[in-house]
Design a protein that fits this description.
heterotrimer, A mainly alpha (335), B alpha/beta (225), C alpha+beta (398), B: 225 residues, alpha/beta, Rossmann fold, six-stranded mixed sheet, four-stranded antiparallel sheet, C: 398 residues, alpha+beta, 2 domains, eleven-stranded mixed sheet, two-stranded antiparallel ribbon, 19% strand, binds adenosine-5'-diphosphate, binds magnesium ion
């Protein structure tokens, strides 16, 4: 199903990101080979300029990657109209074995580009540019991820085979997969709710403590807590909250909440969750950089704002995602 | 002391066929609230020296410190951050943007500092009054006279209130009346506590009564004679 | 935080005035870009409208269709198989249908003739809803038909009120027209003739107690897949089609056509991106001078990059809004007159139908990622080139 607007848009986004990151990688190699802060040669001046080029390129790539993630989910939704048994994005993502990996790699990409940008901003705050090498080696490692992303996407799209009713040998009837609840589950309702609110509460508590005084092990705990909460929240939104948003007990789907029928509430929910998780996790990611000369102040400052932002998004996420659920519990019906 | 240069050299295009050694071991200290004149023939290295003092680029070797901050071996970004805080430039050709209004030209250095437009206009108004160009506020810079251009250029150099004013051959394109006027403004600035460095070989400047010190530059070296 | 915000606003303000100063150059980019976005967006809206039209029409077709297959071809299905389906719980009604294609030698057009017994259709009211004028003939009457608008036009040209068709033995069968389908559903009904099932059997010389296929109506749509599966098990040698599968086929056809067109549009886009690159990268001496002055006055490379970024966002944003608005007007008020021949090119009779696109965020995101993103990506390098003009080039003018 390569020849439709959605596939073309996806591939275009993928190629643009690849192009931008390819250019960034070219600069990265030059910087890694020739960087010499002791020199005022024309080459060094050019390399200093290329630092701006690469950071702009990666920032654009991140922006496009985020849009392409949204396009990917909406495209999967569009494909479902043409795939037997698929009713929304879940169906098409499960239609072949590349859909879910492609989605996961895309989400991973967003996080990894984001970390690069954090690294970059810490770096340029020190007069020594102490992270130049680290950040460009990291950038080179992003390229395989990007290629993998594009490859999975192409495999996924080309692997989608609509059945055409005019062909006689076509399979007469496909089995309806329905919602995505079969992916997850295993938790009882009470347990998952308890874990959800418990973890959220614990994270808020930890965050407040960290804002009072940063302690390394607490910071690491906070970030790993966020990783756990991120996965948990995705599960809970899918298996618990979504059916209250749809007001249909058996409709459980992480993607339909992105549709206009539900006022695009899914976008709000996921943006809050992703941003919260990003800031929450990046606090500990930058912790080792504290020991790099000239970065301590920058790292401390970043961690403070990251914890603050992550708490803000956490509270917002919890309120928005569980709104329909509590409304149903408290007021009943007509959610 | 405000400025200290130790054994500063500058080689343009090092290692290439068009390599030029513009400065050959400059040692120089300049005091606060003084007016210094760098004098020398064309091509002697005055502008290069001024650019190094003005944090436009790094020296090839040697140490530079301005306002107590060690500036050699600093990436371009930090030179810029330092420059926009401590240094005001006045150029021979004024370097105004002809399409922008007088006011917009003056506030240009404040734009990236995140200063609110109201505050930018307030500061510009004070300076425009002081240099008698308030009536030209909304004229494009391409439509005002040479004397007014010069005063706009001075106002722009002062807008972020820098302690150090650098002027590169400011009077080369001015008649003697405007040159006198320029030196008069510089004198006021010196009285107000600014440090001023002017490159010139114009006697109107070099022999001006308020110049505290003349540094002769010859072939990239300070001529002790 | 607040300082950051004013800094961005200042830079945005500067970008605006900079765009305005170079308005001649930017206007040409804006016009071409708006045109490209207009093309892409119109196409997307047309496709969307067609898809939705088809879907709305399909809503009045049965949930399940049962066809008999023999040697890989569809053959007539005996009516008595429906007794074998009687035991399946959830089936509301089984309605036999006779249909086929009829080639009208006079007008050179292909008609789709469909024979149904309207009285047995649970969704009769829906069929009625798709009619522009007249009504559905009643079940008992013979020699009556409901027709699509292109057939009505052919009749009007002939000055006839009776639809005359020929049986395989060349004897004539005439039908009185009782109703005409609405223009909104033209895509499916333009060349359609709906008549009594016995008339259709008579027209195609199909033996009694046979039908082309069986329509199965189901009370609860959620049960359609289960019931379809049970029917397939109960009637080996038949093909069981659900409505969503038919819908899918339309999707694929439209999707393919719009995709093909997108490829053509991408070519236009590429040309535009090259133009944009060219426009942005030609750094004139005045621009070079401006940037070196800004930099010596304390602007960072990042500040100049931000100006260029905002310029790109403003140009593409304005072009996007303009292009999409024009596209909407084009599709709604001018009926996408530029594109319809391409999209509906397969029809023998040129159908005229009204397009009613619906607004969906997804459509605009799609257009956005097909137009604005390539443009922004194409301007990164030129932006950086201009931002890396060194500060000291402002000194050499001294
Ligand atoms: N950007 C440059 N690239 C190469 N050579 C330069 C550059 N700027 C100045 N020079 C050379 O350096 C020497 C000193 O120039 P400059 O400092 O401009 O002298 P002055 O201002 O006293 O006339 C001259 O020989 C000049 O040609
Ligand atoms: Mg000079």
């Amino acid at each position: 199903m390569l020849l439709n607007s959605w596939s073309i848009a996806l591939l275009l986004c993928g190629l643009i990101v690849l192009f931008l990151m390819g250019l960034a990688a070219r600069s990265a190699i030059r910087v890694l080979l020739f960087w010499n802060p002791e020199s005022d040669s024309n080459r060094q001046i050019r390399l200093e300029n290329e630092i701006w080029l690469t950071s702009t390129l990666v920032e654009y790539a991140l922006g496009i990657q985020i849009i392409s993630l949204i396009v990917f989910v909406l495209a999967a939704d569009f494909y479902s109209q043409s795939i037997a048994g698929a009713m929304c994005a879940t169906g098409s993502l499960l239609a072949n074995s590349f859909g879910v990996p492609a989605l996961l790699v895309k989400i991973g990409g967003v996080f990894f580009y984001g970390f690069w940008i954090v690294l970059h901003h810490l770096d340029i705050h020190s007069e020594k540019y102490p992270l130049v090498r680290v950040k460009y080696i990291y950038l080179l490692f992003l390229i395989p991820l990007l290629v993998l992303d594009l490859a999975l996407e192409i495999l996924f799209i080309t692997g989608l085979k609509p059945d055409i009713i005019t062909s006689c040998c076509a399979v007469v009837f496909g089995d309806a997969t329905g919602g995505g609840s079969n992916l997850l589950g295993g938790f009882t309702h009470g347990l998952s709710m308890g874990l959800f609110y418990g973890t959220a509460g614990a994270l808020i508590l930890l965050g407040v403590v960290l804002l009072e005084r940063w302690q390394r092990w607490l910071g690491v705990l906070f970030s790993s807590g966020w990783l756990w909460f991120f996965l948990l929240a995705l599960t809970v939104v899918t298996t618990e909250f979504s059916s209250y948003i749809y007001a249909m007990p058996f409709h459980k789907c992480p993607f339909c909440i992105l549709q206009p029928e539900y006022h695009y509430i899914g976008f709000v929910i996921y943006f809050a969750l992703f941003l919260g998780a990003f800031f929450g996790m990046s606090g500990a990611v930058v912790e080792p950089l504290r020991f790099v000369e000239g970065l301590e102040e920058g790292v401390t400052g970043y961690q403070r704002s990251a914890v603050k932002l992550s708490l803000l998004f956490l509270v917002f996420f919890v309120l928005v995602s569980s709104y329909h659920y509590w409304r149903y519990i408290l007021i009943g019906g007509e959610g | 002391m405000l400025i200290e240069l130790k054994n500063v050299t500058k080689i343009y295009n090092q290692g290439q066929i068009n390599e030029v050694t513009a400065l050959k071991g400059i040692d120089l200290t300049i005091d606060d609230s003084s007016m210094t004149c760098l004098r020398g023939a064309s091509g002697s290295g005055k502008s290069t020296l001024l650019a190094i003092i003005g944090c436009v680029f790094q020296p090839t070797t040697g140490r530079v410190s301005i306002a107590g901050k060690q500036l050699s071996r600093l990436p371009d970004r930090f030179l810029t951050l330092h420059r926009r805080q401590y240094i005001g430039f006045i150029f021979q050709t004024f370097n105004l943007l002809p399409a922008l209004t007088v006011q917009d030209n003056i506030t240009l250095p404040l734009v990236p500092l995140g200063i609110a437009p109201v505050e930018m206009r307030r500061r510009a108004a004070v300076l425009m009054d002081r240099f008698a160009i308030a009536h030209r506020r909304n004229f494009p810079a391409s439509q005002i006279s040479g004397g007014e251009l010069q005063r706009v250029a001075i106002a722009r150099a002062l807008i972020n209130n820098p302690p150090l004013i650098l002027a590169d051959e400011p009077t080369a394109h001015l008649d003697s009346r405007l040159s006198e006027e320029f030196m008069h403004f510089m004198k006021d600035l010196k009285t107000a506590g600014k440090t001023i460095i002017i490159t010139s070989h114009d006697p109107l400047v070099t022999e001006h009564a308020d110049v505290d010190r003349i540094v002769d530059i010859k072939d990239g070296r300070i001529d002790a004679a | 935080m607040n300082r950051r915000l004013t800094q961005h606003l200042n830079v945005l303000d500067y970008a605006l005035s900079s765009l305005w100063r170079r308005r001649a150059k930017n206007l040409s980019v804006l016009v071409v870009f708006s045109w490209v976005i207009f093309l892409v967006a119109s196409f997307q809206l047309v496709t969307q409208a067609l898809t939705e039209t088809a879907a709305s029409v399909l809503r009045s077709t049965p949930e399940i269709t049962v066809q008999k297959m023999s040697a890989g071809r569809q053959v007539e299905i005996p009516l008595d198989v429906s007794t074998r389906l009687a035991g399946i719980y959830g089936i509301q009604e089984i309605v036999p249908r006779v249909w086929g294609y009829y080639f009208d030698e006079v007008s050179g057009a292909n008609y789709t003739v469909m024979g149904i017994a309207p009285g047995r259709m649970p969704l009769l009211d829906r069929l009625q809803l798709t009619l522009e004028e007249g009504g559905v003939y009643d079940q008992e009457s013979h020699g009556k038909a409901v027709i699509g608008r292109s057939i009505r036009r052919t009749l009007e040209e002939k000055g006839s009120t009776l639809l005359s068709l020929f049986r395989p033995d060349l004897s004539q069968a005439s039908f009185e027209v009782t109703g005409v389908f609405k223009p909104e559903v033209d895509i499916l009904t333009n060349d359609l003739v709906v008549m009594n099932i016995e008339d259709a059997r008579d027209l195609f010389a199909i033996p009694p107690a046979m039908a082309t296929d069986l329509c199965v109506y189901v009370a609860n749509p959620a049960e359609v897949p289960t019931i379809a599966k049970k029917i397939a098990e109960a009637l080996p040698g038949t093909r069981v089609l659900t409505r969503s599968q038919i819908n899918r086929t339309y999707q694929v056809v439209f999707g393919w056509r719009s995709g093909f067109a997108s490829v053509c549009l991408l070519t236009a886009l590429t040309a535009f991106v090259i133009l944009a690159w060219d426009k942005a990268s030609g750094l004139s001496p005045e621009e070079k001078r401006e940037i070196s002055i800004l930099k010596i006055l304390g602007w960072e490379t990042a500040d100049v990059l931000a100006v260029r970024f905002w310029e790109g966002i403003l140009v593409s944003g304005i072009a996007f809004v303009l292009g999409c608005t024009l596209a909407y007007a084009h599709v709604v008020f001018f009926n996408a007159s530029l594109f319809k021949p391409v999209l509906i090119g397969w029809s023998v009779i040129y159908p005229e139908f009204r397009l009613v696109p619906s607004f969906r965020l997804a459509q605009f995101l799609l257009v956005f990622s097909l137009s604005v993103l390539p443009y922004l990506a194409a301007t990164v390098i030129p932006a950086w080139r201009s931002a890396s003009v060194p500060a000291d080039s402002a000194l050499s003018g001294m």
